[in-house]
Amino acid sequence: MPILDPSSTATFSRNDSLIEHYDEPGTGTPTYCALRSQRYMYARYYEGAEELYDLQIDPNPLRTSSTTTPTQVSRPCD
Prior knowledge:
78 residues; four-stranded antiparallel sheet; flat
C-alpha cells in the first residue's frame, strides 16, 4: 500500500470522520457516536441527547448550536 510506505509520495485526505464510543464502566464518558466534518460536529448519545457544534464559530466544541442544521450532517447512530 503506497500510503504506508514512508518513501511514497502518495497522500491521504479525509474530509469527514465517524466517531463511536462505548462506555466502559468507570470511564465517565457516555456511549455516543458523532460525525465530524471540517465545519460541524454532530453527536448523538445513547440516552437520546443530541449536540451540534459549528467548529468555525466554536473550534473547541464548548457551545452546542441546536438551532443550526447543516445540510451535510446525517444521523450516524440510526
